[in-house]
């Protein structure tokens, strides 16, 4: 008999069903803060169900259609004639850790895991992250590559490719802006609910172990670029779209997934401002972004309070 474990992330419910064997919820320590103590109430929607069964084998292999970049690792993506997807999850050593096969809308899937505990943990966590991103694509929900700081009840998302200083900038906010906290450092959930854009913590936070079941309405997005000076400007909708879309987990070759993600980004941009910050990793950059995104000044009194 399978063991069903339920989770709630970004106000979406999903189920991980473990077949008898070596696998269990112990493979998902970062998901523990999001675990439900009981199944969702009857009638509550489920984002997806993922069955973990090492004895499962696909009937046939799909046609390779691309690679999905997941935290610097490229996972092979294959598609069957009925539209179902197969994804081979590999670790940094290119060892195959997981084979995932999902129905076209990612509402259900099977995975078979491989290797030692660390490989299985890596494979299952990556499978869950992709299931969440792709199942939520047409539900005004995206996983976004960002570092998120919260200040006075609002979330501020720092965007940019690896090495642009997202985590450094949020760390400097934590250092110099009183009352701030880190919500997630790599893959928060962004979701539009009743004309409000929210950011949620998630079980996926890159190299920083920040797995918090928290949420906040979004105050602004901040695209970062390293520079020998500090300069900030508000982006127009086209510039904002160019900043947000590449930060989303999306399969461009899947029409449902890509359209849903583009629609979500467009809706987000109609409700929340985006800024572009060319910056040095210093206090002046924090003052500049703080003023632009919150409309307040970071005063010496604030800074002194933060350092106490």
Walk me through this protein's architecture:
- The protein has 308 residues and is α+β, with helices and mostly antiparallel strands.
- The protein has 2 domains: 3-135, no CATH class; 141-307, Phosphoenolpyruvate Carboxykinase, domain 3 (Alpha-Beta Complex), CATH 3.90.228.20.
- It has 6 helices and 17 strands.
- The strands form 2 sheets. Strands 9, 10, 11, 12, 13, 14, 15, 16 and 17 form a 9-stranded mixed β-sheet that branches. An 8-stranded mixed β-sheet has the order 1-2-3-8-7-6-5-4, covered by helices on one side.
- A hairpin with a 2-residue loop joins strand 4 and strand 5.
- Helix 2 packs across helix 5 (283-294).
- The radius of gyration is 20 Å and the shape is globular.
Short description:
This protein is of the alpha+beta class and 308 residues long.
